[in-house]
Specification:
- There is one protein chain.
- With 237 residues, this protein is α+β, with helices and mostly antiparallel strands.
- Helix content is 42%, strand content 23%.
- The chain is built from eight helices and eight strands; from the N terminus they run H-H-H-H-E-E-H-E-E-H-E-E-H-E-H-E.
- The strands form two sheets. Strands 3-1-2-8 form a four-stranded antiparallel beta sheet. It has a four-stranded antiparallel beta sheet with strand order 5-6-4-7, sandwiched between helices.
- Helix 2 (19-37) packs antiparallel against helix 3 and helix 2 (19-37) crosses helix 4 (61-71).
- The longest helix has 19 residues, at 19-37.
- The chain is globular, with a radius of gyration of 18 Å.
- It starts with a helix and ends in a 5-residue tail after the last strand.
């Protein structure tokens, strides 16, 4: 198995554990998708993807409809995606994806977390190059062979396809998202969920005590409402 499989196995059940937090994040994704491409999922591929994710997270349909309606209001805040980079203690690179309607607030908060946890905020581009920006899709495994599907999707950008207990996962470079989404829809394959992740190219082993130091910063960051995802180069236990 490749890096995407190991990355997924290491992160499983560690992130998005709080239902309320997941709903908040999906709500922001809906607003950004609607502002970018309109409220019609049939004409807005990004919105279609977010709605699929809302189903995977068991978000009530009325919550989704309410978020779409709210996003069409011209007075609704525009969220901006901002990436923060830095180092946790013990030389672990940290990449923080945020969606914010107040950049000054988010910058101040993220900097305070790094400072309080003995980390260091970095400049733009200081650690981003250490991660591969990928997209992923999950489809039902029933009636499909992961190896055959991988061979069929290679021409559309797929790099790694594997099965777990929740279905078949397809990983590809970030730029291949639209191409693969379209091909899966053309094949009438149900997309259970989809998204983007940043997979570390190299990970670093740490002691148990050092891991606790790093986890302290990660937890602080993930508790912030503006933070969507936190990625790191620490080797998972």
């Amino acid at each position: 198995m490749g890096r995407a499989f190991e990355f997924r196995k290491g992160r499983k059940m560690k992130r998005w554990s709080a239902m309320a937090k997941a709903f908040t994040r999906i709500g922001k994704d809906i607003v950004m998708a609607v502002k970018e491409g309109g409220p019609n999922p049939d004409a807005n591929s990004r919105l279609r993807a977010v709605i699929q994710n809302s189903k995977a997270a068991n978000m009530p349909k009325e919550n989704v409809e309410r978020a779409i309606k709210k996003a069409t209001d011209k007075d609704t805040a525009n969220y901006k995606e901002v990436l923060f980079e830095g180092y946790a203690p013990h030389g672990i690179a940290i990449l923080v994806e945020t969606a914010t309607d107040n950049n000054n607030r988010t910058v101040a908060n993220v900097r305070s977390y790094f400072n309080k946890c003995n980390g260091t905020m970095g400049t733009q581009g200081s650690v981003e190059f250490m991660f591969d920006h990928t997209c992923n899709f999950r489809v039902p495994a029933e009636g499909l062979d992961a190896e055959e599907l991988e061979l069929e999707l290679i021409d559309f950008g797929a790099e790694e396809v594997f099965e777990d207990e929740d279905g078949i996962l397809i990983y590809a470079p970030f730029a291949s998202f639209g191409t693969i989404q379209k091909e899966l829809e053309n094949r009438n394959l149900e997309i259970l969920s989809s998204g983007f992740e940043r997979i570390p190219q190299i990970t670093k082993a740490v002691t148990e005590a050092e891991m606790a130091d790093v986890e302290k910063l990660i937890e602080k960051l993930e508790e912030d409402d503006d933070v969507m995802n936190v990625y790191h180069t620490m080797e998972e236990a």
